[in-house]
Amino acid sequence: MTLRLDQQIAFLNEADRLKSTLRATTLCDGSRPENSAEHSWHLCLYALVLADQAGPQVEIDRVIRMLILHDLVEIDAGDNPIYGDFDQTVVEQQEQLAAERLFGLLPDDLRDELRAIWEEFEAAETPSARFAKSLDRFQPPMQNLASGGGSWIDYKVTPQDIETRIAAKITRGAPGLWTYAKRRITAFFAQGAL
Amino acid sequence: MTLRLDQQIAFLNEADRLKSTLRATTLCDGSRPENSAEHSWHLCLYALVLADQAGPQVEIDRVIRMLILHDLVEIDAGDNPIYGDFDQTVVEQQEQLAAERLFGLLPDDLRDELRAIWEEFEAAETPSARFAKSLDRFQPPMQNLASGGGSWIDYKVTPQDIETRIAAKITRGAPGLWTYAKRRITAFFAQGAL
Ligand SMILES: [Ca+2]
User: How far apart are CA A188 and CA A50, in angstroms?
Assistant: First the structure.
C-alpha cells in the first residue's frame, strides 16, 4: 500500500512541473503568459460552463478527465503554439516518449487507465474527445480578445490565419462556438484593434 | 443564444483572475507561490490518481466538479492560509458574497447548477464533498515535503500544529492519506530538516 502511494505521490509531484510550462497565450489582463496547468483548469471550467454546446453523445465528465490530462506531456515536450511552425511527426514522437515516462511513474493499473484517457483525447475520434479538442482551440482566442490581441500580435496573424488554424477543429466538436468566435474575431479586426 | 454565450464567456473571463490569486504554498521546486487556479487543476489530478483512497459512496466525477469550482470565490475573498488566523464567520460572509457575484454572472440555470456544487463542497457533508476536502488539505503538505518545508517555515509550525490543523479534516474523507502524510511529516521533522 505504501509503495503504491509513494508511486502515486511521485507522479503528482512530477506533474507539478506543468505549472512551469509556459504557453503563447497570456492571462486575460495581459499581465503574463499563461502556464499549462492553470490553462488545463480553465478548460475544465469551460467544459462545465459550455456543456450546452456539446452534442448528445458527449460525456462531460469524460471530457473533463481528458482536459485534466491533455497537456501533461508538455512537461517533457513543451507547448507548441498554434501559430508556430512544427514538424507534427517529431512533436508526436516527443509526446509519446513523454507519455511513456510520465504515466510510467504510476502503478500499472493507473498508468493504463490514465494513458488511455490521454490517447483518446489525442486520437480525437470519439464525440467527447472532439468536444475537448474544440474547447482547447476555443479558449486561446477568448483570451486574446480579452487581452487586446495577445499571441495574435506576437505572431502577426490575420483573421484568415486564425480561421485556417482553428475553424475546422472547433467546428468538428462544437460548431456553435466557432460561429460565436468568428463573429467576435471579425468585429475585433474590423475595429482595427491590432 | 448569443446573449447566453456572452454571459458564459464573461464568467469564464472573470474566472481567469483565479490565476492571479496566490497561496501560501509554493511549487514543489520552491520557485514561487502556487496560484489557486493551478492548485485547483492539481487537486483534480489528485482526485483521478488517488481515487482508490475514497470510500465506496464517493463519486469521483462529482469530486472533480467540486474541485474545479472550490476556490473560485477567492477571486474576491482571497486565499486564507491553513496556518493563518482568520475569523471564520467573516471569511464565510465574504465567500458567500463572492459566490453571489461570480456565479451571478452566469445564465440562471448554470448559476444554480454550479453554485449548488460549490455549496455541497463547502458544507462537507456528502461523502464526495468530504473526499474533496481531504484532498484540499492533503496536497499542501505534499508540496511542503517536496520543497523542503515551504509554508511550514514561513509560519514556523511544529508537527503538532500540522496535526491540529489538518489531521481531522483529511481523516474524515480519506483516512489512508492521513496515515501516509503523518508518517512522512514525522520522518521529515525527525531528520531536523527544518
Ligand atoms: Ca483555498
Answer: 22
Q: Which helix (H) or strand (E) holds B25?
A: strand B22-26
Q: At what angle do helices B2-15 and A175-190 cross, to 10 degrees?
A: 80
**Interchain CB contacts (distance < 8 Å): A and B:** 124
pTM: 0.97
- How far is the C-alpha of A51 from the C-alpha of A58, rounded, in Å? 9
Q: Do B42 and A12 touch (CB under 8 A)?
A: yes
Q: Where are the domains of chain A?
A: 2-190
Got the DSSP string for B56-79? TT--HHHHHHHHHHTTTTHHHH--
Indicate whether this complex's ipTM tops 0.85: yes
CB B72 within 8 Å of CB A49: no
Report the residue of A60, A68, A72 to disrupt the B interface, i.e. the one with the largest count of B CBs within 10 Å: A68
Residue B24 at interface with chain A, using a CB cutoff of 8 Å: no
Please report, in tens digits, the pLDDT of each residue of chain B (194 residues total): 559 999 999 999 999 999 999 999 999 999 999 999 999 999 999 999 999 999 999 999 999 999 999 999 999 999 888 888 889 899 999 999 999 999 999 999 999 999 999 999 999 999 999 999 999 999 999 999 999 999 999 889 999 999 999 999 999 999 999 999 999 999 999 988 66
Q: Please report the residues numbered 121 through 150 in chain B whose beta carbons come closer than 8 angstroms to any beta carbon of chain A.
A: 142-143, 146
Flag whether residue A8 sits within 8 Å of chain B, measured between CB atoms: yes
Is A64 within 8 Å of B69 when comparing Cβ atoms? no
* In chain B, alpha helices (H): 2-15, 36-49, 60-69, 74-77, 88-103, 108-123, 127-147, 151-154, 159-162, 168-173, 175-190
Using DSSP's 3-state secondary structure scheme, residue B22 falls into strand
Q: Is B165 on the interface with A (CB under 8 A)?
A: no
Judged by a CB distance cut-off of 8 A, whether residue B9 touches chain A is yes
How many angstroms separate the CA of residue A66 from the nearest CA in chain B? Answer: 11
Contact yes or no for B12 and A142 at CB 8 A = yes
CATH topology classification for B2-190: Hypothetical protein af1432 (1.10.3210)
Cell (9 digits) for A118 = 490521454
